[in-house]
Amino acid sequence: MPAPEPGARRSETPRRRGPLAAASRRQFLIGGTVAAVGASGAIGLDYALRQNGESTSAESAGAAEPLNGDRLVDFHGAHQAGIATAAQAHATFIGLDLHPEVDRAGLRRLMRILSDDAARLTRGSAALADSEPELAISPAGLTVTFGFGPGFVARTGRDGPAWLRPLPAFSIDRLQPEWNDGDLLLQVASDDPITVAHAVRMLLKDARSFAGVRWTQQGFRHAHGTVAPGTTMRNLFGQVDGTTNPTPGTDTFDRVVWATDGWLAGGTGIVIRRTAMDLDTWDRLDRGGREQSVGRRLDTGAPLTGAAEHDEPDFTATTAIGFPVIPEFSHMRRARSDNPDEVIFRRAYNYDLPPSGGAVSDSGLIFVAYQADVDAQFVPIQRRLDELDLLNEWTTPIGSAVFAVPPGCAPDGYIGETLLE
Ligand code: HEM
């Protein structure tokens, strides 16, 4: 199995096979551009060319497209993969509870084993003692990201960040214990759901003598290839969701997301809020009401005062009869803060389960936010939304969990070493 290209850290490396090894315009574009802007940018460039009706020589020659299944995201690096990584189509989040007898040495063994599994699987290799090695060969951008709950850190005898505890209670919460908390988080994401299922199974098989599953949440976004790379996802209300978000690779992103202190330096905090979305009552709301509830248009995701998705909203604009065009109670207005420290990085997934009890849907959002300091960044936003947010009429938080996500590791290291060594 070829190793990732040198310098491919955090970039997404399409592996090439057969006819694509031959020089082609596409290869020149991608190969030449990867070094400068990263593979995702190159793929965007390639996409733009195709939109202009240009074909590549590889295509003219009938050569196969590079398979998305071959795409690698390096497991190793200063930060864990799966955070700044462009969100893959499928993700499974698993909260585990440690068995009572597992001590610090046991945690070290556990994290060494799981890090080794993740390193192998993300480069398209079978894990040790993999009973279905064929399912490992198409990682499709697989990432495995680990988080430590308060119980995990307590077991090490060391202190965690002050915010590493359950969130304060909010009046909108209707939390169900089966979706809350946990000692260890696995976030497994890939563009291929078979890859996710296999990686999850391998990790859980190796974790089972140390920890048991507390909850599992499976989520999805647009399938790979359905929308252009970089398109903001839609949630199941039909809203464009994720527009105002720090951009990975920028100073703002680094400041918002990466912790700088102690064993968590280079890591971050994750908040997972399972939020039910009542599609059945949402259906009864007219389009104008739906757009007012968030302050953005449904078709383009543009603010109600703008024309394009990324236009800056004008909160001072008023209608002919003097009401704000973007209502004070809209989700966007309430979620936004003037405080540059109150920013989070959202990376949500949809869920859609078989309905029961006469309902026609059981859907929602696995709301996922990364931030360096949960108390300073996430909590004040959630408090404002708790006080007032029209979207609360149709959304209900039913699960809540907070984890510290340790930094990444080098190929000879393991995730959690800064806490466990
Ligand atoms: C099911 C629950 C939720 C839905 C459907 C939802 C949907 C949306 C939508 C459609 C937008 C506008 C487009 C965008 O910028 O992404 C938005 C913005 C935002 N949401 Fe949510 N959201 C939910 C929960 C939350 C929660 C729990 C928080 C944090 C506590 C949150 C924080 C934000 C922030 C910070 C923005 C950007 C506001 C700005 O423009 O500055 N959202 N959300």
Describe this structure in words.
With 421 residues, this protein is an alpha+beta fold. The chain has two domains: 25-63, no CATH class; 75-420, no CATH class. 27% of the residues lie in helices and 18% in strands. The chain contains twelve helices and eleven strands. Strands 7, 8, 9, 10 and 11 form a five-stranded antiparallel β-sheet that branches. It has a four-stranded antiparallel β-sheet with strand order 4-5-3-6. A two-stranded antiparallel ribbon has the order 1-2. Helix 1 packs across helix 2 and helix 4 runs antiparallel to helix 6 (193-207). The longest helix has 19 residues, at 104-122. The radius of gyration is 22 Å and the shape is globular. The protein starts with 11 loop residues before the first strand and ends with a helix. The site of protoporphyrin IX containing FE has 25 residues, from strand 7, helix 10, strand 10 and helix 11.
| Residues in helices, as a percent range | 25-40%
Order of helices and strands: EHHHEEHEHEHEHEHHHEEEHEH
Largest sheet: 5 strands, antiparallel
Shape: globular
How much of the sequence is in beta strands? Answer: 15-25%
Mean pLDDT: 89
Number of strands: 11
Quote the distance from N terminus to C terminus: 31 Å
Based on CA atoms alone, the radius of gyration comes out at 22 Å
